[in-house]
C-alpha cells in the first residue's frame, strides 16, 4: 500500500535513516541535498533503490510531497522551506516521523548544555537492565534504529531545531538540563523564541508523563511560573530541598518519587564538576522512574567513562594535564569547564562567535587562567575581552601550533584546556574534527 510521497531535505544521518524507515512503511521516497551527500550514505540509497539528488534542489520534485522531513541543520528562513510551508505541505523532523512507528518508552533530553552527557549517562544506567537504544543527535539515527533494532526504550538527545518540527512527538520522560542563549541566529535573535522551542518537549505530554528539569535555572523557573504543563514535574537542585525530585545534601543525591526515596553518594561519580552532579541527578531520576535497581545505578556511575570531547582527559606530559573540551561551543559550556579546573590553566579558545558575551567568564579567567591561546580566523573580540587579564595572550590558526605554544607556556602541575566557547566552522569541519586534531597534536608532542 502506497502511503504517499515523502521528500527528505538533507542526506545526512537523520535523512538516510528516515528514508529507509519511510520506504519500509510504503512511502514513495525522494532525498534532496543542496550539498554533496557523503559516499557511505549514497551507497545506502543506491543499495535500497531510493531516488536522490545532491548539489541541488529540484523544486518540482520537492513541492509535490505529501510530507517533508527537514534535516535540523536547514533553517526555516530558506526560501525553499518557506515555499513548502506556503503550499501547505506538512514539515516534520526525524524524531517526529520515527516516533509514529514505535510504541517504545521515550526518554527525550534537551537543553543548551549537558544533553549529550546526560543522554549518554542515562543510557549507560538503563542498559544494564533494559532493552534500550541511544539516538537523536548521537550515534545511529532514531529512524534507522526503529526500523532495524526496534528497542523497547529509547534515550533521545534532541535539539531545539528538532523540536521546532514536532506535531505529536510525546516522550514519556522529558528532561530539560538548562537554557542559556545559544543559536539565537536561528530564532530572530529573540531569546524567548529559543526558550519556547526548548519547552516544546513538553507540549504533548499528559498527566501520566514526567518532566525533569533544573530548578536552579532561572530561565526555566520563570517560564514555568507563567505557563502550564500537563506532566508531573520532577525538579533537581544543588541548593534547594526538593520534595518530589532530586537534591543535594552533604554530598549525597537524594531522589524522591511517590514517597519512594533513594540516596546516592556523589563521591562514586567519575565525572567532575558541579554541572555533572546535575547531569547525574537527571539520569538517576530517569533510572529510578524506570525501576532500575539502586545497586545497578551506583555501579554504573562508578564505571561511566564520560563523553568524547567533553572535559576529556587526553594525556599527562611532564606533569601537565591536557584536556579536550572541544564540545564547548558556547560560553556557558566553557563556564562549566573553567569552573571545574583545579590548577593554573592554559586556555585554548576561539572559533566562530555566535554573539558571545564573555563577561561571566571573567572571575574564572582572573583566578585560574595563566595564558590564553586564541584559535580562530578572527580573534579580535577575545583580545578585547581578555587582553588585560592575563600576561600571555597569543593567536594562531593551526591546532598543532596552538598545542606547541601551550606546551612551552605550561609548567608542572598546570592544565592545558581546549574549551573554545565558539563554533568550529572557521578552521575545522566540526567540533569532533577540532577535538581529534587537538588530541593528535598532544600525542605528537
List keywords for this structure.
445 residues, alpha/beta, Rossmann fold, UDP-N-acetylmuramoyl-L-alanine:D-glutamate ligase, Protein-Tyrosine Phosphatase, Chain A, 3 domains, nine-stranded mixed sheet, six-stranded mixed sheet, 17 helices, 34% helix
CATH-defined fold name of the largest domain? UDP-N-acetylmuramoyl-L-alanine:D-glutamate ligase
Can you say what the CATH homologous superfamily of the largest domain is? Answer: Mur-like, catalytic domain
In terms of quaternary structure, the protein is single chain
Radius of gyration: 23 Å
Helix content: 25-40%
Q: Which term fits the overall shape? A: globular
Which architecture name of the largest domain does CATH use? Answer: 3-Layer(aba) Sandwich
Q: How many strand segments?
A: 20
By helix and strand content, what is the structural category? alpha/beta
Number of helices: 17
Quick one: biggest sheet? 9 strands, mixed
Integer tally of domains:
3
Indicate the low-confidence ranges by residue numbers.
none
Strand order of the largest sheet: 7-8-6-9-10-11-12-13-14
- Report strand %: 15-25%
Give the class-level CATH name of the largest domain: Alpha Beta
Report how far the terminal alpha carbons are from each other. Answer: 61 Å
Q: How would you state the average pLDDT, rounded?
A: 93
Main location: cytoplasm
Organism: Winogradskyella luteola
Family: Belongs to the MurCDEF family.
Domain Mur ligase C-terminal: 309-422
Amino acid at each position: 500500500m502506497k502511503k504517499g510521497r515523502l521528500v527528505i531535505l538533507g542526506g545526512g544521518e537523520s535523512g538516510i535513516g528516515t528514508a529507509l524507515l519511510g520506504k519500509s512503511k510504503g512511502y514513495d521516497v525522494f532525498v534532496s541535498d543542496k550539498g554533496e551527500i557523503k559516499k557511505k550514505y549514497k551507497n545506502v540509497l543506491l543499495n535500497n533503490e531510493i531516488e536522490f539528488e545532491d548539489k541541488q534542489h529540484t523544486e518540482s520534485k520537492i513541492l509535490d510531497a505529501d510530507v517533508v522531513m527537514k534535516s535540523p541543520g536547514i533553517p526555516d528562513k530558506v526560501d525553499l522551506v518557506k515555499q513548502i510551508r506556503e503550499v501547505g505541505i506538512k514539515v516534520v523532523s526525524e524524531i517526529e516521523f520515527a516516533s509514529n512507528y514505535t510504541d517504545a518508552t521515550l526518554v527525550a533530553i534537551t537543553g543548551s548544555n549537558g544533553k549529550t552527557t546526560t543522554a549518554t549517562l542515562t543510557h549507560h544506567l538503563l542498559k544494564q537492565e533494559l532493552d534500550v537504544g541511544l539516538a537523536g543527535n548521537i550515534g545511529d539515527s532514531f529512524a534507522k534504529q526503529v526500523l532495524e533494532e526496534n528497542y523497547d526504550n529509547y534515550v533521545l538527545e534532541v535539539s531545539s531545531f528538532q523540536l521546532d518540527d514536532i506535531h505529536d512527538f510525546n516522550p514519556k520522560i522529558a528532561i530539560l538540563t538548562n537554557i542559556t542563549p545559544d543559536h539565537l541566529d536561528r530564532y530572530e535573535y529573540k531569546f524567548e523564541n529559543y526558550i519556547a522551542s526548548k519547552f516544546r518537549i513538553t507540549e504533548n505530554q499528559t498527566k501520566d508523563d514526567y518532566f525533569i528539569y533544573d530548578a536552579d535555572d532561572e530561565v526555566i523557573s520563570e517560564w514555568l511560573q507563567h505557563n502550564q504543563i500537563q506532566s508531573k514535574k520532577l525538579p533537581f537542585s544543588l541548593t534547594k530541598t526538593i520534595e518530589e525530585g532530586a537534591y543535594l545534601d552533604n554530598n549525597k543525591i537524594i531522589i524522591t518519587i511517590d514517597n519512594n526515596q533513594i540516596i546516592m553518594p556523589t563521591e562514586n561519580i567519575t565525572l567532575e564538576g558541579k554541572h555533572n552532579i546535575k547531569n547525574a541527578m537527571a539520569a538517576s531520576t530517569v533510572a529510578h522512574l524506570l525501576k532500575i535497581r539502586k545497586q545497578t545505578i551506583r555501579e554504573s556511575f562508578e564505571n561511566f567513562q564520560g563523553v568524547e570531547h567533553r572535559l576529556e582527559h587526553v594525556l599527562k606530559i611532564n606533569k601537565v594535564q591536557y584536556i579536550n573540551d572541544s564540545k564547548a561551543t558556547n560560553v556557558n559550556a566553557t563556564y562549566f569547564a573553567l569552573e571545574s579546573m583545579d590548577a593554573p590553566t592554559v586556555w585554548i579558545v576561539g572559533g566562530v562567535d555566535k554573539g558571545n558575551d564573555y563577561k561571566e567568564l571573567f572571575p574564572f579567567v582572573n583566578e585560574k587562567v595563566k595564558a590564553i591561546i586564541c584559535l580562530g580566523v578572527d580573534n579580535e573580540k577575545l583580545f578585547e575581552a581578555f587582553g588585560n587579564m592575563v600576561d600571555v595572550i597569543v593567536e594562531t590558526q593551526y591546532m598543532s601550533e596552538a598545542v606547541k605554544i601551550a606546551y612551552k607556556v605550561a609548567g608542572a602541575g598546570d592544565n592545558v584546556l581546549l574549551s573554545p566557547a565558539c563554533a568550529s566552522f572557521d578552521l575545522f569541519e566540526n567540533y569532533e574534527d577540532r577535538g581529534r586534531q587537538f588530541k593528535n597534536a598532544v600525542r605528537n608532542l
